[in-house]
Write a structure and sequence with these properties.
alpha+beta; 30 helices; disordered N terminus
């Protein structure tokens, strides 16, 4: 991100009069470059220590994996940490705990703790057919009688059955679903040839007169009404009946008080799934889809198990391409091992970060699968930038000087991009983030990026030093064997000469060029030095050929003159150039800046923005946790079956009146009845008012009479006794009738296919109503914690990260970087982010915590790719825009291209993992790499050729001004050509 300031190429340049702000930036810039130059010399002076210390530290911290722990509470990761729904849930649990519902349990009404649930479907026919009904009741009895042994072996083992673990009623009998009671009544009537009771939907009446909601227990229902539709209560005797049902859902709630009971309940859930699996094998006509309280956690973490081998394949594929990207035709100057060492540096930093997390007691979850790719993109780009800068240094310098020059050239930009990564991740990891999964991911990613940066400065840099000594000793870049001299190599076979090819013979016969004969081009042996562009970047280090306004930071002095250098220059050794560098230098740079290509690139960018906008307008929130688990697991199969058969009605919504209300007041009664209008409902108040009307009593009575009749008459009727669980009485003074302190009503809404969106709208509507109502009430369902402000909770870290980027770019424009670089980089990051978000939506990815994590990491990745290119272009002076675009592509576009190639190869195996989480990760990271590549290699090189910043001929008031001319005198030692510089 940090670039070179124009007019400053090292410590030896004579400062010219400039504005004060510009001089302050140059002084700070020069100080930072000097500091990194000294750091490079220090690392090159102690390579053994900096190579061994990170390895030893990683090994020591890697031993901490004995403390490795997996996150158990997945719900806390995937729901907003601070939400009104959680507060409402705590209030509901304190007023009406699950154990207090002695007569009926409503599916999904409260967080039930431990449970086992199964959806039973039929391949053909109805679950209410006698043969299927008998089979389902048989399954129920087997589950009821199933036992688990805890502990599995030993004298202290005990057998636990469902009757011991279940939630009991006041008669100490296990509470079971109402549909089981209804089916038992139907089976009993058939057995004794009695009239079969009518089963109504969604609210039916049992034999004891109690009304029961079975909307979540029967699915795919067809009634006797017109068109097979099931009509509501009061629509006629035959219209209420159920003709057939395709699915049935059973729930078994368990007690989990204490650690022992929780362990027993956990074992029972495993036995429950095993029992269903064996039962399904014996009854192929039924389909069974089980789900337990631990299914979400197990299936969420199962993505990590599935991704182990693909991640190893990703590392192997990336390693192979990294070796190829670091290789050259010249066996001495080729650095294939540096590609593997870069991956090793990233792996060691990841191991160190994991060890630190284990020692601090942190837990692991599957969202961390994206962290290796954050480290990979950032680390690979830094390593390829260092290698590119190394190849531009002078080979006749000492290795320490070359490493110091690499640090001076690269580390300022690499540190700036690392700072941008840390700023975006750090702010998303702050307490401002309301999503725990996002906060933990960003905290861990920030730690990993920091350690990766330190290891790049130490371990990888020391590896660069060792390979530099191998190059100085003319040893093979792959086999580390000294390359024979030409006279000995001529007698070898052709394959051996090809394997050992190098320009050794030219090194020993290098002659000094005539002074000024080549317009200041030193005849250096490195074929990778960019000679194509005569007016070299004034701040670009490691350039041996210095032209009109160019300065060299890797050489002690530079040859400068006032004569313009010809634009064309022939590469004397094209066969030794790096393949990608040669393609960019000779083909792609000229093609992308061609006048006839630019309109098509601009048109392509307009198409890119159009499709991005199309997707941006269709962004949807992905609050369903099943979208983050492995495919073909119990959670996914159960969710599909539930969506297919049980999507006609919303989850049961608890309508809780948590303060005393004048229920005897007719206006309050009308308000409460109006609130429940349009819902399927089970309401004690509505039943009580009908009870009073049937007995010709007024529904508007004094408080004492209203409460007395409610307690001593209504609740003692068998068909209404279950309503006692829905009312809380508060004692008043002695001799006074208690008052209703709190109560609840159950509501169910009719829904369509967009069930979650409708529930979100319904939640907001009822909450707004609660603010204006005279009766103080709240509504709650456990699914509300996933819906409540989910969009704001998910998108807020992304907004914070964008603000952090803009703040950092604004600050850097005032301190170090060229102001226009900050502007361009900010616009590029916004464009990449906009494109990734839009195309992500068009590809079927919703805005959930995993996609937001990828969008946050995309900011740093796009800055890595495009930042150095912008800095290289903006800091150039003289010559044309097109020429400086080509120079920037050669110097910084090639490392970006190498990083994108290796990064894309690492992503390919991840796309084969059968997991929704990794599928989201693969799609988002692929779009990030693609959009970054388009901007770095196509959009920016084209737009910069006709948009600011401008290219001026000089910085002084008189244009080029006078330059001091120096003479280079070459002296040969035993191995290298050393320059002795004297001033003329």
């Amino acid at each position: 991100m940090l670039g070179s300031a124009p007019g400053l190429s090292g410590r030896w340049e004579r400062l010219e009069p400039r504005p004060r702000a510009r001089m302050l930036r140059q002084v700070l810039h020069a100080g930072l470059r000097t500091s990194f130059h000294a750091l490079g010399r220090f690392v090159a002076s102690h390579p053994v220590f900096f190579a061994s210390a990170p390895v030893l530290l990683s090994i020591l911290l890697g031993a901490s994996f004995s403390r490795y722990r997996v996150e158990e509470d997945v719900e806390s990761l995937l729901v907003p940490k601070h939400s009104l729904a959680k507060i409402e849930g705590n209030l509901v649990d304190s007023l009406f705990p699950v154990n207090r519902s002695k007569h009926a349990l409503y599916s999904d009404l409260q967080t039930p703790g431990r449970y086992g649930r199964v959806i039973v479907t039929t391949r053909k026919g109805s679950v209410l057919d006698p043969v299927h009904m008998d089979t389902i009741l048989k399954l129920h009895r087997q589950i009821y009688q199933m036992q688990v042994t805890v502990p599995a072996t030993g004298f202290n083992s005990f057998n636990y059955s469902f009757s011991y673990l279940c939630l009991p009623d006041e008669k100490n009998v296990c509470i079971i679903d109402d549909i089981i009671r209804a089916m038992e009544e139907i089976q009993s009537a058939r057995m004794f040839n009695r009239t079969i009771p009518i089963l109504r939907y969604p609210i039916t009446q049992l034999a004891d007169g109690r009304q029961a909601y079975i909307g979540h227990q029967l699915g795919g229902v067809q009634g006797w009404g017109p068109g097979g539709a099931v009509r509501g209560p009061g629509s006629g005797s035959r219209g209420e009946g159920v003709r057939s049902a395709r699915a049935l859902q059973l729930t078994y709630y368990l007690q989990a008080r204490g650690s022992l009971m929780d362990r027993v309940a956990s074992q029972w859930e495993k036995a429950f799934c095993a029992e269903l699996q064996s039962f399904a094998a014996l009854h192929p006509k039924l389909g069974l889809y089980p789900s337990t309280s631990s299914s979400l956690r197990t299936d969420f973490q199962f993505s990590s198990v599935l991704a182990r081998r693909p991640l190893m394949a990703s590392l192997g594929a990336c390693g192979v391409l990294a070796i190829l990207c670091c290789s050259m035709r010249d066996c001495v100057r080729s650095k294939p091992w540096l590609g593997l060492l870069a991956l090793l540096s990233i792996t060691l930093s990841g191991l160190t970060a994991a060890g630190i997390l284990n020692l601090t007691g942190a837990t692991y979850n599957s969202s961390y699968l994206g962290i290796p790719f954050v480290m990979l993109g950032h680390g690979l780009f830094g390593s390829f930038e260092m290698l590119s800068s190394w190849r531009r240094t002078r080979e006749d310098q000492h290795v320490k000087e070359r490493v110091a020059s690499v640090f001076e050239d690269v580390m300022l930009r690499f540190s700036g991009s690392t700072m941008l990564h840390l700023m975006t991740l750090g702010l998303a990891a702050s307490p401002l983030t309301n999503m725990e999964a996002v906060r933990l991911f960003c905290r861990t990613a920030a730690l990993s990026v920091t350690i990766s940066y330190v290891y790049m400065l130490s371990f990888y840099s020391s590896c660069l030093v060792f390979t530099g000594y191998l190059e100085t000793g003319y040893r093979h870049g792959c086999f580390c064997r000294r390359v024979p001299k030409p006279d000995r190599l001529d007698s070898k076979p052709a394959w051996y000469r090809c394997l050992m090819y190098t320009r050794y013979q030219e090194e020993t016969h290098t002659q000094n060029p005539p002074h000024g004969g080549a317009h200041g081009h030193a005849n250096t042996p490195n074929p990778n030095i960019t000679h194509t562009h005569p007016h070299a970047h004034p701040h670009t280090v490691n350039n041996t050929a210095v032209h009109a306004h160019g300065h060299v930071a890797n050489s002690t002095h530079s040859h400068q003159h006032t004569q313009a250098v010809p634009a064309a220059h022939t590469d004397n050794h094209p066969q030794d150039s790096h393949l990608l560098l040669g393609c960019v230098r000779r083909c792609y740079g000229d093609w992308i800046t061609n006048t006839y290509v630019k309109p098509f690139v601009v048109l392509l960018y307009l198409v890119y923005i159009s499709f991005g906008l199309m997707g941006f307008l269709q962004v949807t929130q992905g609050s369903d946790p099943s979208a983050l688990v492995a495919m073909d697991t119990a959670t996914v199969l159960y969710s599909r079956a539930q969506q297919r058969y049980f999507s006609s009605y919303s989850p049961v919504i608890g309508f809780y009146i948590y303060e005393s209300a004048p229920y005897w007041n007719s206006s309050v009664q009308r308000d409460l009845l109006e609130y429940a209008k349009g819902f399927q409902r089970i309401s004690w108040l509505e039943a009580y008012l009908n009870y009073l009307s049937d007995r010709n009593q007024s529904t508007s009575q004094p408080r004492e009479n209203f409460t007395r009749t409610l307690r001593h008459s209504f609740l003692r009727e068998p068909q209404f006794a279950h309503f006692a669980d829905d009312i809380i009485f508060a004692e008043r003074g002695q001799g006074e009738e208690p008052e209703v302190a709190a109560s609840r009503i159950f509501l169910v809404a009719k829904t369509t296919e967009n069930k979650r969106e409708e529930m979100s709208v319904l939640l907001d509507t009822l909450r707004r109503l609660s603010l204006t109502s005279r009766v103080r009430f709240i509504i709650f369902n456990p699914s509300f914690v996933y819906l409540d402000r989910y969009a704001a909770a998910v998108s807020s870290p992304l907004r914070h990260s964008l603000l952090a980027v803009l703040f950092l770019l604004g600050l850097s424009s005032l301190a170090v970087v060229e102001p226009l670089v900050s502007v361009w980089l900010g616009l590029t990051l916004l464009s990449v982010q906009f494109g990734v978000l839009g195309f992500m939506t068009l590809w079927g990815v919703e805005l959930d915590c995993m996609s937001v994590l990828c969008l946050i990491s995309a900011l740093g990745h796009s800055a890595d790719c495009s930042g150095p290119l912008l800095c290289g272009f903006a800091s150039g002076r003289g010559d044309s825009r097109t020429r400086w675009v080509r120079v920037a592509l050669e110097r910084h576009g090639v490392p970006s291209l190498q990083t994108l190639i290796c990064y894309s190869a690492a992503l390919v195996p991840v796309g084969s993992v059968r997991s929704n989480l990794t599928l989201t990760l693969f799609r988002c990271l692929t779009l990030t790499a693609g959009c970054s590549a388009l901007h770095t290699l196509a959009f920016l090189p084209t737009l910069l050729t006709f948009l600011p910043p401008s290219k001026s001929r000089g910085h002084g008031p008189e244009g080029e001004g006078q330059r001091q001319e120096v003479e280079c005198v070459e002296m040969n030692d035993s191995t290298r050509v050393v320059d002795q510089i004297t001033t003329v």
